[in-house]
Design goal:
The structure holds 2 protein chains of 2 kinds. Helices cover 69% and strands 2% of the residues of chain A. By secondary structure, chain A is an all-alpha fold. Chain A has one domain. A two-stranded antiparallel ribbon of chain A has the order 1-2. In chain A, strand 1 and strand 2 form a beta hairpin. In chain A, helix 4 packs antiparallel against helix 5. Among the domains of chain B are: 103 residues, Alpha-Beta Plaits, CATH 3.30.70.3270; 31 residues, no CATH class. Chain B contains 7 helices and 5 strands, in the order H-H-E-H-E-E-H-E-E-H-H-H. The longest helix of chain B has 14 residues. Classes of the chains: A mainly alpha, B alpha+beta. The interface between A and B is medium-sized, with 13 and 14 residues.
Chain lengths: 348, 201
């Protein structure tokens, strides 16, 4: 049994890992295609039918490029930077509930690698670590543009983490749990958290954009001001890893938004037609994936619509708008939850 | 005011709704979303080409006459007329027995056009007294080295079997216009006109 459990977990980890990489790979393709369609172009269509092999060609290009490490850089940290970025990006996938349990031979196999009861805390811990990859990479480059980009990235991520955390506190208050699996399981049929926490959801999505360094919050790699931002000095696959980590982050963010606010693997009305729990679990996985793909599209759609914020506007939005709003959201949620006690107090 | 889309810029205070930015963001996103379904303006170049105008001036051709002899006599007027100095030539004398190759006693042994210098203005064909050089609707290929862009006679002279069609640019009107030029020998296109215009002189 112990061994079975171990093998099952290893397989699950491998599956989630490879799916993450695959989705991130094809996000690069989707990004270029969607950008093209939104701008009345065609996009990459030469490598394979519809350009479907473009990510492969990009990967080959990245690997074949000359590897440059600046002589003035701190070589060890320079190499650790993109690795750390990639590591933290992949680590968050552990707590996402990808579906309900599948029952094989009387044994339940949950489609979540680790349903820790402090899932949200773990998520925020890893998210906070994510800034280190960028910070270390930018600092070790020993280049002023890289350093400025890294400083921007870290201050941006720290600022928006606050609002994100407070908006999640309101969610934790309504759901009463820190476990991601539990949060997903609560949102059966139409009881999606977005309906109970619309403001919190909006704040969370905006902060997710900032945390993943996506447009309109992509100041860390602001080409017009900072050459390439924190990855100015990077080349070859180390640059590739930085860029790839962004797509993994986007995938994980989409998964987290879907799980926290948009019902996770739940889909209303599906229980009427499908009764076999195993099929329901598999369908749940499909539904979650549809939601994730939808959000990835949303991420890209926003990127190719909105212009980049100015740095002071970014900080204004983070500290003067989103944090007060999320605190207001938290207070309102608390007041609503305590309404009976408050009414009782005043009617005494 | 030509498009009636100009708007007066005002620096008024934004209203609360405008300060929230969300309506503006959503309207912007709607605009980009509608572009998802619009036809792309791309032309997939090597497979598809843009349709050229009838008077497009592309790669040159050195014409042959009705018997298949080269018209060019290496007079050098095209090279003189060329504002980009793209044309060079070396003349040679026709030997007995070469009458089927060259129309007149002098011919161009070497005739080169540097396609990187050429600006495709068409002054060469205007200068040509022998109706020998014309610009066609063909594109100049791209190459990896500069040397390959220097087109010699092997590329420029049309082949006997497949003459280049010039009717799109050299319409009857254009031909008639050219007849008014003061070159009596320029009028081999139309035998009737020759006597008529020749009467001017």
């Amino acid at each position: 049994m112990e061994l079975n459990f171990l093998i099952y977990k290893v397989i699950l980890v491998l599956i989630v890992f490879s799916i993450t990489l695959l989705v991130a790979t094809y996000s690069t393709y989707a990004e270029r295609k969607i950008a093209a369609f939104l701008q009345d172009r065609i996009g990459p269509d030469r490598a394979g039918p519809f350009g479907i092999l473009q990510p492969l060609a990009d990967a080959v290009k990245m690997f074949m490029k000359e590897e440059m490490i600046p002589s003035v850089s701190n070589k060890i940290l320079f190499i650790i930077g993109p690795g750390l970025c990639m590591l933290t990006a992949c680590m968050t996938g552990v707590i996402i509930p990808w579906g309900k349990s599948i029952n094989i031979g009387g044994v339940d196999y949950p489609m979540q690698i680790a349903d820790v009861n402090i899932g949200i805390l773990y998520l925020f811990g890893v998210l906070s670590l994510g800034v280190y990859g960028i910070m270390i990479g930018g600092w070790a480059s020993n280049n002023k543009y890289s350093l400025l980009g890294a400083i921007r990235a870290s201050s941006q991520m720290i600022s928006y983490e606050v609002a994100m955390g407070i908006s999640i506190i309101a969610l934790v208050m309504t759901t009463g749990t820190l476990s991601t699996g539990e949060i997903a399981a609560q949102q059966t049929s139409w009881h999606w958290n977005v309906l109970y926490q619309p403001l919190g959801c909006l704040i969370f999505i905006i902060c997710a954009f900032a945390e993943t360094n996506r447009a309109p919050f992509d100041l860390p790699e602001c080409e017009t001001e900072l050459v390439g931002g924190y990855h100015t000095e990077y080349s070859s696959m180390k640059l590739g890893l930085f860029l790839f980590a962004e797509y993994i982050n986007m995938f994980i963010s989409s998964a987290v938004i879907s799980t926290f606010y948009f019902g996770g693997y739940n889909m209303p009305l599906i229980g009427r037609w499908v009764h076999d729990p195993n099929w329901l679990a598999i369908l749940g996985f499909v539904f979650l994936f549809m939601k994730i793909v939808g959000f990835i599209f949303f991420f890209m759609w926003v990127r190719w619509t909105l212009p980049r914020f100015r740095y002071d506007q970014l900080m204004n939005l983070g500290w003067k708008v989103l944090i007060p709003l999320s605190i207001l959201n938290m207070v309102l949620t608390g007041t609503w939850m305590m309404r009976h006690e408050i009414m009782a107090y005043f009617s005494k | 005011m030509l498009t009636n889309r100009s708007q007066v810029v005002s620096k008024k205070e934004m209203t609360l709704i405008e300060k929230m930015y969300l309506p503006a963001i959503f309207s912007g996103m709607w605009i980009t979303f509608t572009h998802l379904f619009k036809k792309s303006a791309t032309i997939r170049y090597p497979e598809q080409t843009r349709e050229f105008s009838g008077i497009y001036r592309g790669q040159h051709v050195l014409k042959r006459d009705e018997k298949g002899a080269e018209r060019c006599t290496a007079c050098g007027l095209c090279a003189v007329a060329c504002p980009a100095e793209a044309i060079t030539m070396v003349s040679a004398e026709r030997k007995p027995g070469e009458e089927h190759l060259y129309r007149e006693e002098k011919y161009a042994k070497i005739y080169e056009i540097n396609m990187l210098r050429c600006i495709f203005c068409g002054d060469c064909e205007e200068a040509c007294p022998k109706e020998a050089i014309f610009l066609t609707d063909r594109k100049v290929d791209s190459f990896y080295t500069r040397k390959e862009f220097i087109y010699g006679k092997s590329i420029l002279v049309e082949s006997k079997d497949s003459p280049i069609d010039l009717t799109k640019r050299q319409t009857p009107d254009v031909k008639e216009f050219k007849l008014d030029k003061h070159y009596a020998h320029n009028q081999t296109f139309d035998k009737n006109k020759k006597t008529k215009v020749g009467g001017h002189h």
